[in-house]
Amino acid sequence: MTSTPSITITRLDLQRLEKLLDGLEEYGPAAQALEQELARAQVVGHDEVPPGVVTMNSRVHCRDDNSGKEYHLTLVYPQEAGAEGTVSILAPVGCALLGLSVGQHIDWPTPSGKPLRLTLLDVEYQPEAAGEYRR
């Protein structure tokens, strides 16, 4: 990733994601990237996270600034990925979305090497803002 905006995550998400990483059979580049994101994040309580921040199970609206194409994605744990509109936290874009605030963007190299710039337009649903902490 060439651009690393500041990110915020909840203590509960941190605990769950650390448990996920500890339980992986294969610890590859995706797990390493997630571990780096967790290490640099500002950690707050679930009742302290602003509503415009991407947390686990958040539904987001973002735009590929290169193509102008817009996406509505839900950031999920790997076992919940696969349904239309979901992106795993272990996918490069999923990992990069975690902790972003509305208006921030990420630069991410695609497998072809072409950089992808995603701008977070809106957090349409955030469990913490909805009072749903058991997810």
UniProtKB/TrEMBL annotation:
Keywords on record: Kinase, Transferase
Domain Regulator of nucleoside diphosphate kinase N-terminal intervals: 5-44
Occurrences of domain Transcription elongation factor GreA/GreB C-terminal (ranges): 51-125
Gene Ontology molecular function terms on file: DNA binding; kinase activity; RNA polymerase binding
BP GO terms, sorted: DNA-templated transcription elongation; regulation of DNA-templated transcription elongation
Keyword Kinase: yes
InterPro entries in the cross-refs: GreA/GreB_C_sf, Rnk_N, Tscrpt_elong_fac_GreA/B_C, Tscrpt_elong_fac_GreA/B_fam
Pfam family, one: GreA_GreB
Name of the molecule in the record: Regulator of nucleoside diphosphate kinase
Species this chain originates from: Pseudomonas indica
Taxonomic lineage: Bacteria, Pseudomonadati, Pseudomonadota, Gammaproteobacteria, Pseudomonadales
